[in-house]
Amino acid sequence: MTSSTLPLAPTTTTVVGTGENADNWPWATSTTTPATPHRDARLGFEPGEVATARRRVRSGEFPDWLDHVSAAAACTRPIRLSGQIDVKNRDGSIMHSIDTDTMPDGVIYTPCGNRRASVCPSCAEVYRRDTFQIIRAGLEGNRYGLPPLGEHIAIFLTATAPSFGPVHHRVVKTHAADCRSRERCTCRASLCRPFGKACPHGVEIRCTARHKTTDPAVGTPFCLDCYDHDGQVVWNHEAPELWRRTVQEADRELERLGKRLGVTLRRRYVKVFEFQARGVIHYHAIFRLDGYHPDCPSAIVPADRAVTRAMFASVLDTAFRKTSYTSHTHPAHGGKGWRIAWGTQGLDLKDINAPGGDDNLTKLTGYLAKYVTKSTEVTGQVFRRVDDMTVELHATPDTHLGRLIRSCWDLGIADGWQRLRRYAHQFGHGGHITTKSRGFSVNYTFKRLERTIWRRTQGFPHLWDEQEADLVVYRLGYHATGWITTGDALLANSAADAARRQADTARDYADPDPAPKVQPLAA
């Protein structure tokens, strides 16, 4: 006979003295008393996290440590650098040197700088705000050395990819008056595909559902075997080249228009790509039309009044309709290339800085800036870079995204197509999230320099003197990634959150700030 034992593992507390023998005594009523969780657990903190945070706070160097990590306090996984910093005079002589061994933790913390909100929300927000300011400056001007641009014609357009097969989609023909967000839209959608017939594989190409925004079926093909996965990943791969050729065609059309009117015209643009639910990209872009000043060719001046918005829109529409080409040949495509062109549904064109369109300008600028922090989340999956060890985990043949990754991997084995494998996690697309033409606005380098000057002058950038500034030479190397302990992450993120709330409150009560003090030439 095996006797009952009192469990030693932490569990629900029962009446004293019964243990596991309570079920053998019918008259003994078990009184269950749930164990009271620790206060830290009730607040959502792990015991180890709180313990390491307490050790850091109780250490004598906590204030210095908190000031030391302030630049990267909100980052999820900061980069730790170690080495030496030399401060030199203008003549090159070293005034003094600083070794990171003398600093808290023996390293310098710098933000990771990742633009993806799913990886680091803080760095992604900085990237989003920089993008917003860059685009806004390129449309309004009157800052960063740019003249007022209110009289310049500007057009917002969306260029999409062609169809590669029927997919489930959500179309809202009429939005409610209070609908403000496409991601959270609850407006009544049209029927997906009410009419259709079976494909050669016996799959019914018909759907009478009114899909919601969060429906995982949106963007998935009706028949995986009918869908042209190879064609889609090749189009993603060739999209940057298609854009380059389209801009060249727009320049030629603009030159023809200028010759007819007897004026010189120049275009400048900024673009952002976004993934659709089916895993193919499309471009959002803003084109600005500038004129030409013969006495100062680098000046940014409005176009001649003989050029209208309709003319500029026609130039862009013609360029996007005319541009197409054939990609390089591939053995898997019968030794031929794929035809690369824009979708047949045409461009979606909107005027931005038309008279009385300030609200539209702000909305579209924020719309573009929002998408620079996103990756492939809209497809329902976010993948890391794929290699030989992980490709079989992701390239599942029974899913749409898995077949896209498989197409990238199989096509990328041929000469000249290796980039498909490198960017298989982005379904073949390897272009930068945002690009702009020279002269549209300032660049990200300037925005980073602006923050550096702000930190070095303790919030008084007008005191910065480039001629008197000392030269700082960083001889640093990679040490590690991330916070040393979870308690450090808790303290740093909490301090950053408090600073952010204080800044937001101060901004709400402060007077509007005029144009920034730092005024470089437009990049």
From TrEMBL:
Q: Which GO terms describe its molecular function?
A: zinc ion binding
Instruction: Using the UniProt annotation, give all residue ranges assigned to the region (Disordered).
Output: 1-42, 502-523
Q: Which branch of life, at top level?
A: Bacteria
Q: Where is the SWIM-type domain?
A: 170-210
- Listed Low complexity bias regions: 1-36
State the coiled-coil residue ranges. Answer: none
Any idea what this protein is called?
Answer: SWIM-type domain-containing protein
| Native source species | Actinoplanes lutulentus
